[in-house]
Write a structure and sequence with these properties.
Distance between the termini of chain A: 15 Å
Shape of chain B: globular
Number of domains of chain B: 1
Helix content of chain B: over 70%
Order of helices and strands of chain A: HHHHHEEEEH
Number of domains of chain A: 1
Structural class of chain A: mainly alpha
Strand order of the largest sheet of chain B: 1-2
Number of helices of chain A: 6
Oligomer: heterodimer
Structural class of chain B: mainly alpha
Radius of gyration of chain A: 18 Å
Largest sheet of chain B: 2 strands, antiparallel
Distance between the termini of chain B: 28 Å
Number of helices of chain B: 22
Shape of chain A: elongated
Radius of gyration of chain B: 23 Å
Chain lengths: 139, 520
C-alpha cells in the first residue's frame, strides 16, 4: 500500500506490536495471554510490515525463513518437556526455579520455555501464511 | 507464579512417586519424530541431510517401539500421565499390547518407505518438506496408537491428517490437488464427527481418560445415551478407515501421489481408524459394540466385496492397490463384528499383515513404474523377461495380499473364517473367502498382463529405466517380513491374542492408569 501515512506509521506500529506480543507472552501464565495470543500479535506485526514495504522487506528483516522459525518453536516446545527426565517426573511436568537478579526474584520455569516454543510456532506458521498471501497479490 | 514461603500438599492433584527413566519409552515414539521433524524444518534447505536423518530417526523409533513392546508383553500395560497431574485430570499415555504392536509395525513400514524414498524424492519434494511431513505424520500415528485419552486421540488424528494433506499435494499436479480436495473435505467431515462425539462423551462422563471411561461405561447403565455415542464413533472411525458406504475419499485420492506416499497412506492411515474402533467400540463401549455387531458385520461384508470388485475393475496398479486397501479394511471390520478373542485377534493379526503387505504393494507399483514405464496394465508387458527378480517379489506380494500361502494374509483369514463359522455368521465367512478369491483374480490379472505377457510392440510408449536399489531393498525387507508372518505365525498369533484379551478385559489397562484401584 503506497499511502504516506501508513508507510510512516508502519515501522512504529510493527515495533510496538512486537514488544506488546512479548509482554502478552510473558504475562500469559496466570493472566489472559500466552504463547498463542502473543504469537498472533507478532505475526500481525509482520503482516503489517509486509503490507507497507512488501514481502521481500519482511523476509530480509526476519533473516530466517518463517517455517524455520516455526520448526525451532516446535523443537523448543518439545525440548521443554525433557528436563523432567532428569528429575524423575513425567514428561512436561512444570519445573520452577526462582533465581535472584539484583535482589529481584524472577520465576523461571519449563512451562515458560514451552510457551515460548508455542509463540515461535505461531509466529512462524502465521507469518508464513500471511507472506504467501501477500506475495500472490502482485502476481 | 509460584506461591512463596508456603508448602502446599499437592499429593491430591499430582503424582508424587518418582518416574523411572524406563517409563519414557511410552512417550519416546512420539517425541523422537516430533523433535526430528522440527530439526528438519529448521534445516529445510540442507536437503542432503533430510533422508539420512529421517532414516536414522525412524530406525531408532523401531528400536524404541520394540523395547516398548517387549516391556508391555513382560509386565502388562504401562502408563505415564503428562505434567505429573493425576489421571484422569492429566493426559495419560497408556500402552497395552495392542498399541505397542501396532506402533512397532507402523514404524517398520515407515522406515522401509523412508529407505525407498532416498533416491525417489527429488530436491523439490525435499525442499517442500517431504521428510518433515513424513516424520510428523509418524508422530501422529504413533501418538494415536499410544495415547490413553480420547481427546488426545483426536489431536493425533489431526496431526497425521494435516501432515498427510502436505504429503498428498507435494508435486502440485492437477490430479493431486483434485484428489487432495476430496480427501481433505471428507476426512474433515469425519474428524468433525469425531470431535462432536468426543464433546458429547465428555458431557456425559465428565472424563476422557480411556481407562476411566472403560470403568464408568460399564457402571452407568441406561442413564446415558451410550448407544448414540457408540454409533457416532462408529460412523466417524468408519469414515477414517474407509469402510463402505463412507469410503469414497480413498479411491479418489490414494492413486494421485507418488508410490511412496501411497505406500505410507495405504499401509498406515486406515489402520489408525481400525485401531480407534477397537479401542472405543470393544474396550470402552463393550456392550454397545456387541449390540452394533450386526451393523458392523454387514458393513464389513459390503466393504470386502466392494473393495475386491473395485480392484477387479481397475487397470491402474495404484487404483487396484487402493481398492485392496478397502477390501482389507472390510476384513478387519469383520473381525470386530465377530468379537470374542477369536475374531478380535484375527482382526489384529490381519492389521499387522496388512500394514507391510499394502505398503509393499504400493512400493512394488513404484518399482514397476520405474522398470516398465507405466502404472497402467494397458501399457505394461514383458516384465518377467526384463526382471525376474521383480517378478519374484510381485509373486510373493500378490500371494500375501490375496491371502494365499506362504504369504502373511493366510493365517489371519483362517482365524477369521474359523471365528465366523464358530459363531454361525456364514455370510461373513463367505464374504472373506469370496473377497480373497476376487483379490486373487485381480492380482493375477496384474501378474498376467504386466509380467507374463510378452512385450507388445507399439503399445510400450514409455521406455522403462532401472529400478532404484533402495526401493528394491525396502520391498525385499517388507516381503521377508510377510514371509516370516506366513511361515512362522505362532508369535504373531500369540501377540494378537494377548492384545485381544487386553481389549476384552480392560482391568490390567485400568490398573496401569489407576494403580490405587477405581477411577476418579
Amino acid at each position: 500500500m503506497q499511502t504516506l501515512i501508513f508507510r510512516t506509521a508502519a515501522p512504529y506500529l510493527t515495533g510496538l506490536m512486537l514488544m506488546f506480543s512479548v509482554f502478552v507472552l510473558l504475562r500469559g501464565h496466570n493472566e489472559p495471554g500466552g504463547g498463542f495470543t502473543g504469537g498472533l500479535i507478532a505475526a500481525s506485526a509482520f503482516g503489517i510490515h509486509g503490507i507497507a514495504f512488501g514481502v521481500p522487506a519482511v523476509r530480509r528483516a526476519l533473516n530466517f525463513h518463517p517455517m524455520a522459525i516455526a520448526g525451532f518453536g516446535l523443537f523448543v516446545a518439545a525440548v521443554a518437556g525433557l528436563p523432567s527426565l532428569v528429575f524423575g517426573v513425567p514428561f512436561l511436568t512444570g519445573l520452577w526455579s526462582a533465581p535472584s537478579f539484583f535482589g529481584i526474584s524472577v520465576d523461571l520455569s519449563t512451562v515458560m520455555i514451552f510457551d515460548i516454543g508455542v509463540y515461535l510456532v505461531v509466529v512462524g506458521s502465521f507469518t508464513s501464511i500471511a507472506l504467501a498471501l501477500e506475495d500472490r497479490e502482485h502476481d | 507464579m509460584a506461591v512463596q514461603g508456603e508448602i502446599i500438599d499437592k499429593t491430591a492433584a499430582m503424582i508424587a512417586a518418582p518416574v523411572p527413566a524406563a517409563d519414557w519409552l511410552v512417550i519416546a515414539p512420539v517425541l523422537l519424530p516430533i523433535l526430528a521433524g522440527a530439526v528438519l524444518l529448521m534445516i529445510r534447505h540442507s536437503v542432503r541431510w533430510h533422508a539420512v536423518l529421517s532414516v536414522a530417526v525412524l530406525a531408532v523409533l523401531v528400536g524404541a517401539n520394540g523395547l516398548l513392546l517387549r516391556r508391555v508383553l513382560a509386565e502388562g500395560p504401562v502408563s505415564m500421565t503428562m505434567g505429573s497431574w493425576l489421571p484422569p485430570f492429566g493426559i495419560s499415555f497408556t500402552v497395552d499390547a495392542l498399541g505397542a504392536v501396532f506402533s512397532l509395525t507402523a514404524s517398520i513400514v515407515a522406515v522401509c518407505c523412508c529407505v525407498s524414498s532416498v533416491r525417489d524424492v527429488d530436491a523439490t519434494g525435499r525442499r517442500y518438506g517431504f521428510y518433515p511431513f513424513l516424520l510428523l505424520m509418524m508422530a501422529g500415528v504413533s501418538g494415536a496408537f499410544l495415547t490413553g485419552d480420547v481427546f488426545n486421540l483426536y489431536v493425533w488424528f489431526e496431526v497425521f491428517l494435516i501432515s498427510s494433506f502436505g504429503l498428498l499435494i507435494l508435486g502440485s499436479e492437477k490430479s493431486q490437488i483434485d484428489g487432495a480436495t476430496k480427501y481433505a473435505i471428507l476426512n474433515l467431515v469425519g474428524t468433525t464427527l469425531f470431535l462432536i462425539a468426543t464433546g458429547y462423551l465428555y458431557g456425559t462422563f465428565g472424563t476422557l481418560n480411556m481407562a476411566d471411561l472403560a470403568t464408568k461405561a460399564g457402571q452407568i447403565g441406561d442413564a446415558a445415551p451410550l448407544m448414540t455415542l457408540a454409533s457416532l464413533f462408529l460412523l466417524a472411525f468408519a469414515m477414517k478407515a474407509a469402510a463402505f458406504p463412507v469410503n469414497f475419499w480413498l479411491p479418489a485420492s490414494y492413486h494421485t501421489p507418488p508410490a511412496i506416499t501411497g505406500a505410507l497412506f495405504g499401509g498406515l492411515l486406515t489402520k489408525v481408524g481400525i485401531y480407534a474402533l477397537l479401542r472405543i467400540l470393544v474396550m470402552i463401549f463393550a456392550v454397545e459394540g456387541v449390540a452394533l455387531a450386526g451393523v458392523i458385520g454387514w458393513v464389513a461384508v459390503a466393504t470386502m466385496l466392494l473393495g475386491a470388485l473395485g480392484a477387479l475393475a481397475q487397470s491402474d496398479i495404484r487404483r487396484i492397490a487402493g481398492f485392496l486397501v478397502i477390501s482389507g479394511v472390510g476384513t478387519m471390520l469383520a473381525g470386530i463384528a465377530l468379537g470374542g478373542n477369536g475374531g478380535l485377534s484375527g482382526a489384529i493379526f490381519y492389521a499387522l499383515h496388512s500394514m507391510p503387505a499394502l505398503s509393499a504393494l504400493y512400493l512394488l507399483g513404484g518399482l514397476v513404474r520405474q522398470r516398465g514405464g507405466s502404472f497402467s496394465l494397458h501399457q505394461l508387458s514383458g516384465l518377467y523377461g526384463a526382471s525376474p527378480f521383480l517378478t519374484l517379489l510381485a509373486f510373493i506380494i500378490s500371494l500375501a495380499v490375496a491371502g494365499l500361502p506362504p504369504g502373511s494374509g493366510l493365517w489371519p483369514k483362517v482365524m477369521l473364517v474359523r471365528a465366523a463359522l464358530d459363531s454361525g455368521a456364514w455370510q461373513i465367512a463367505a464374504a472373506i473367502l469370496l473377497s480373497g478369491f476376487l483379490a486373487t483374480i485381480a492380482l493375477g490379472r496384474v501378474f498376467i498382463l504386466a509380467f507374463w505377457r510378452t512385450e507388445i510392440a507399439g503399445v510400450q510408449a514409455v521406455a522403462g529405466g532401472s529400478m532404484s536399489i533402495m526401493g528394491c531393498c525396502a520391498v525385499v525387507i517388507l516381503t521377508l517380513a510377510m514371509l516370516a508372518m506366513g511361515v512362522m505365525p505362532e508369535p504373531f498369533v500369540r501377540v494378537s491374542g494377548t492384545a485381544a484379551s487386553g481389549l476384552l478385559d480392560a482391568s490390567s489397562y485400568v490398573r496401569a492408569v489407576f494403580p490405587g484401584g477405581g477411577g476418579s
